[in-house]
Amino acid sequence: MTDRLPPAPDFGAPLPVRPTPEVLAFLALRRSTPAVTLAEPAPTAEDVEVMLRLAARAPDHGKLAPWRFIILEQSAKAEFARRLEALAQSRGDAQAAAKLGKLKAPPLAVAVVSSIRASQIPEWEQLLSAGAVCTNLLNAALALGYGCNWITDWYAYDTEATAILGLSGGERVAGFMLLGTPKEAPLERERPDVAALTSHWQG
Length: 203
Fold this sequence. Notes:
- The protein contains 8 helices and 5 strands, in the order αβαβαααβαβααβ.
- The protein has about 200 residues and is an alpha+beta fold.
- The longest helix has 21 residues.
- Strands 1, 2, 3, 4 and 5 form a 5-stranded antiparallel β-sheet that branches.
């Protein structure tokens, strides 16, 4: 494992809570990168290992790890896109085929797959955990200096498409994390009015 990270703590080791202003600064300027601007070089195998290790530290009620990762490197990703394109064309769906541009452009993708476990933990909480994994992976990629775009699209929900990816019954794609080096800096987007979305419960 790269020396850019501290060693993984032992189970039960104390993890002190302390202010981390550099993390606040990062989050204040965090911006996903449009997929079509992502090019070589792709994240190295070591960097992908870092991303997955950090992604897996997401909140996970019940310690179920109700998710898994599928890495699609350049040639494999191209084959996946080719088979999706053939699927769309077999249906006469030119619009679906055109939407594959985002998947084709970046040199690397990681599919985060939600895998619900039999448990007393509600399915909704397990789905939320998979979303948190996607967020951690995206932020880890950006913190490493890469671009990342979290997308779904028709091929995340289409059962024939997910079968091509190798998903089993009940599994869902939480996100395709598209990764590469940005060809241009992403521009700031409009952000929500947090005050308008916030209330205080008065009892």
